[in-house]
Structures are given as C-alpha cells and as structure tokens.
Amino acid sequence: MENLVPAEFLRHICQTDVGEETETRNIPEVRRKPDQILQKLIKKCLNQVKKDKLTSIAIPAIGTGNLRFPRPEVAKIFFEEVTGYLTAHPQSTINDIRFVAYGKDQPTVDAFLGAVQEIKSMVLLPSRKTAPVPVPTVRKNPPTKVPGLSNVTTSEKPDGSLELSLGSRNLTVQIVCADISKETTDLIMHVTSQDFSFNGGVGKALIKAGGDSIVQECKAFGQPALFSTHYTKAGNLSVNQIAHVIGPGKPSYPDLKKCLDNFFDDVMKKNIAKISFSAIGAGAMGFSESQSADLIFDNLSRIAESQNPPLNLARIVIFEKAKFIKFKDATKAYVASGGATSSSPQPGGSSPKPRFFSFGSRRAVSTKTAGGGGDTSIKIYSDDKKMMDQAWAELQRKMNQNIQEKTVKDDIIKKFTDSNLEKLPKLECDHDVKIKVDKGKGMVTIKGYIADVANVQFEIHNIVEDIRNNETSVPSYWTIAPTESVFHKVVLSTGSKEYKDIETAFRKTAANQIVHIERIQNKRIYELYNVKRKGLMDKYGSNFAGKELMLFHGTSRENIEKINAGGLNRSFAGIHATVYGRGVYFARDASYSCNPTYSPMDPQSGHRYMYYAKVLVGDYTNGSSTMIVRPNKNTTDPNETYDSVVDNVASPSIYVLFQDYEYYTEYLITFK
C-alpha cells in the first residue's frame, strides 16, 4: 500500500484508562489527572524518538478533542515537558519538534498561540547553544534589554551590524562585517605564534595594508614568551598600534582563553580606550563562532562590571559575511543565556543543536543566502491553506524575478592567486552575493540580487584585466627597443618622475654627483625575473608587501656590458664580500655601494657605476660567511628555506641572494 504520510515512523498511543465505549467526562482518573497523563505520554514519545535515533517529531494536540482536556493546560504541558526534556538531555539528537493543531479548531490554535506568547523570550537550552521559539508574527529590531547579564542592551543596525552596551559603565561592543585594516581605534589585536606568523587572515590584511615595517619590528622581539602581549607601531594603518598576542602554534581552548585573559588584563593596565579585533579562534585555529563569542564576551563582561574600566569601545571586525552572521547569532545566544560560561570544548567538538518548536499549518523551505550566510529557513504560517499557497507562490515568483546567477568565463581565472581569491569574500560581504570559483574550468559564478550581480561581475572583470595587464612581458613604461638588440639602454630625462624618484633614493645617503641614469631594458632577463616574482607572490599571497625591494649594487666598468646582456648572476658572487654568505650582495643605502671597493673608478672617464635593482628579498634571516645556499627554516620540511639572508634581521641594510634571476638590474647610475 502506498505510504501517504511523509514520515519515517507512525507511533500509535493507547491510553488504557479510557475505554472506547465510556464517556471521558465520567472517568474520575481522566478528569483528575490530565496533566499527569499528558506529561507521561510526551516523555514516552520523546524517549522513543531518542531510542530510534531520529531527529524530529510531530505531535498532535492530544487531549483537546474527545478527551476534552483544557486547551490552555494542554499547550502549557506540551511546552513545559519538551523544554524539560531538552534541558535534561542537551546532547539529544532531536532538533525539530512540531506541535500540530487542526486548522479549523480555532480555540486550540489560540491556546497554543497564547502559550507561545508567554514563553517567546524563553531560552530553551542550557549553555548558549540555544534558539528562540519562532512565532507567527513579524517584528522590527528595536533595542532590547536583555535579562541575565547585568545592564545589557542590544541593537541591530540597518547595515546588519550588532551593537551592545554592557554594564553600568556602558562599554560599547560593535560587531561589524568590514576590513580590519581600515580600523581607526587605538589598537588592533592580533593573535600570533612565537615566530610572529602573519599567515592568518588578519595577519595578512595587516601586513598588506600596514607594510613590512610591522614585520621588522616584530623580529626585533626575538622569541617571546607564550601568552605575552607585544606592541608595535601600525605602519600605514590608521590605528596607533598593534597588539601581538603570543599563543601556541595550535592552541587548545584553555590556551586561547589564557591569551585573551592576559591581553584584556593588559588593556586595563595600559588604560586603552578603544580596540579592534576579529572573531578570535573562529578561523584557522578551528574553534566555532560560539566558542569565540564565549571567550570574548566573558572578558568584556568582566571588564564592563569592573570599577571605572578605561575601555569604552570594542569592535569585533569580521571580513567574511558567513562568519559574521554566525558570530552575531552566537553573540545573541550568549546574551540570551545570561552569559553562563560553558565548559572548555576543543575545536571541532560537538555542541548541542538548536531546537525549534513550531505548530499550525505552514509551508517551509531551507535555502542558502546569497551572501554565504548559511541556511535560511523561511516559514509561512496560516490557518488558511489557500492563502498560504498564494503567499508561497508569490514569494517564489519574486525570488525568481530578482535573483540572478551569472557566470564569468576566462582562462585568466585559472591563474587566480591567493591574493586574487582573498578579494572575493569582501565582494560577497559588500554586495550580499554568493561567489563560487572553479579555477580548473576558469569560471566564476555569481548569485544574488540582479543589480548586485552586475556590480560584482564588473569587479571580477577588473581583477581579470589587472592580471592580464600584469602578464605583459615588459613594464608598460619601457620604450620600444630595436628587435635585434639583446638589451636596450634608455637615458632618463632629469625632469622625469622616474629620474627624480631614483635620485631621491640615491641622495638619502650619498652626496656624490650623478652624471646620468639609464634604464636597462632586457626582455629575456626581465621575463625570467617575473617568473620568480610571480612564484613569490603565489607563495605569500596578500603577505607579499615588503618582499620585493629596490636596492643598490656597485660594480666596475668592465662588468657593465656582461650584466646588461646576461644579467647579474652568481658568477659575480663573493668577488668583494663573503661575510654574510657567498651570494650576490645588495645594499639598502647608496652610500654603501659608493665605496670604491664595490664601485671602482673608471681610469679613462673618472666615472663610477652602481645599479638600482628590483630584488626579491622574501623572508630572510641572519647570514654567515659559511653559507653558500639559502638556509633552511626551522621546520620539519627540508624544502622550506629562507629567500635571502641579511646583516641584521631587526634592521637589515645588506641583503644576500643565492639564486639567479631573483633580481633585475633595471637602472644603471653613472656618478662621480
């Protein structure tokens, strides 16, 4: 026989105390103890679901028909029993419980609606993994006074950000979807490891926008103690400083808690008023947004309740929209639970799932939000099936009209680097769309509101064109060279910006007279250099800032033609210096290369020579005279090496490179 009920199991309940032929109202047992009968019945139902390892159950409004139990009492018992069960069994597999009332039995529907109105602000679960009861009403989001935590007010803004005011001193907490490198508070907090890694999302953003000076300042700290906080200047960022909080490479939950506890204690001691940080732990460290919210708000609540705290603004800045939405929901759950701290779960640990109660006639669909915010459940409640079907059809029609999916196809997409891909979450966040990249097929798919899709499609085309333009074999400012020449020399005009920029760099440390500056255009050598450069860009992604420098290299007259034609290579290594390794030497300061040892005078003309070169310094360490190849990093991978060595990691002025084509001698300076 065909199964007409779309359920896996049907459970039939028999109440032995009630005979089929007997009128219920004449049975004292039923009249006296309807609450006990219903309580026992619902408990048995839920225990059976647990035994069957199911995840959902629909329970009709038992007792409101022929048994004539009081409807308000039935609704109250249903909610109380289910709430009690879930509280006692937080790890239960049940995550969907539905109370079903006959649509034409209006008194029963009203009774359940009344019960919902009484408990709609109630938290259904212990800890913070909770969910509010959905009610068939639509409400705005005015500031809400939250019970449980002391003096907490929440307000959701039109742009989706969430603002909280904590404690009697009104510590303001703002949760925003934005780029943390654009912050203007007193400091940005960054959790890192003892080797000051900037490979995480926040670290990459800070170095990309702030510059390599941040890395240099961190290297001066050496190997800091675990759980300590070290402060550096912020480079090109708008904040005053960056707080680098030192944790283990793979921190446990207690490790991360200790990091944050110590940091916030330090903030209090230093009287810092405004700080910015990310959803700490909810990224590469593997913790959930709920665990991150626990750690952060346990500390912020503690500060808010302290006496005269200096901190008055904490901004939690999250770049990815999906993570932003999850963290915002976790914060609401934290506040709703009154801030009761849970145990110390590990990354990837299981957590109780949200439970939802629903009842009445409804249509529902689970769909993905365009902006990557995870599942969104749309539920339509009505006591009129025809009206419900009409509403559902209209919703689908509007969605089909306004939601569009576009695909950008281009072979350049196959060459997207990490730095290109890192731009896409911001586009998703800014335009509320979903972007999917298939590098293998050279394809980007954009889904969302029609106007937003068009805007993002334009941005994707810009990224593609930028890559295409950068792939040209030589820089756009080079002049056309004779086809038969191996290299081509172009004397720069003294009034050009190109000349003045090089002159300025030279004059910073050298007072010698410049005779002229020539641009050396060697297409073959430049293309080889560009291959190395792209490899380094792929390796470091958005952390590439500061990995390529313009440096000086002194030379003699007899070497100029060789270098211009064949490039500066390892055959020139160790001619004048081996103190930091047997490689090719470059100097930060022109004055160093002005030394006659490195740039001897041509006896015929009285001129001297040095190159101003592009150099891929990458990651570096201190050099030594025994080095003949790039040294290994202190890792388990023997192929992971430094890119260069220097005289002083904290403030390098000499750079030594060991492989060909990691530098391009673009300008030749002739001087006296």
For the termini, the CA-CA separation is: 102 Å
Alpha plus pi helix count: 17
DSSP helix fraction: 25-40%
CATH topology of the largest domain: Leucine Aminopeptidase, subunit E, domain 1
Task: Supply the CATH superfamily name of the largest domain.
Answer: Leucine Aminopeptidase, subunit E, domain 1
**Cα-atom radius of gyration:** 34 Å
Our count of domains comes out at 4
Class by SSE composition: alpha/beta
Q: Which strand order does the major sheet show?
A: 3-4-5-6-11-10-7-9-8
Name the CATH class of the largest domain. Answer: Alpha Beta
Biggest sheet layout: 9 strands, mixed
- The number of E-state strands comes to 26
Write the layout of secondary structure elements.
Blueprint: H1 28-32, H2 34-51, E1 56-60, H3 71-88, E2 96-100, H4 106-119, E3 144-146, E4 152-156, E5 162-166, E6 171-177, E7 187-192, H5 201-210, H6 213-219, E8 229-233, E9 241-246, H7 253-269, E10 274-277, H8 289-304, E11 313-318, H9 321-336, E12 356-359, E13 361-368, E14 375-382, H10 385-402, E15 403-409, H11 418-421, H12 424-431, E16 434-438, E17 443-449, H13 450-470, E18 488-491, H14 497-507, E19 514-521, H15 523-540, E20 548-555, H16 560-566, E21 584-587, H17 590-593, E22 608-616, E23 620-622, E24 644-646, E25 654-657, E26 663-671
Parallel strand pairs: 1-2, 2-12, 6-11, 7-9, 7-10, 10-11, 23-24
Antiparallel strand pairs: 3-4, 4-5, 5-6, 8-9, 13-14, 15-17, 16-17, 18-19, 19-26, 20-22, 21-25, 22-26, 24-25
Helix pairs in contact: 2-3, 3-4, 7-8, 8-9
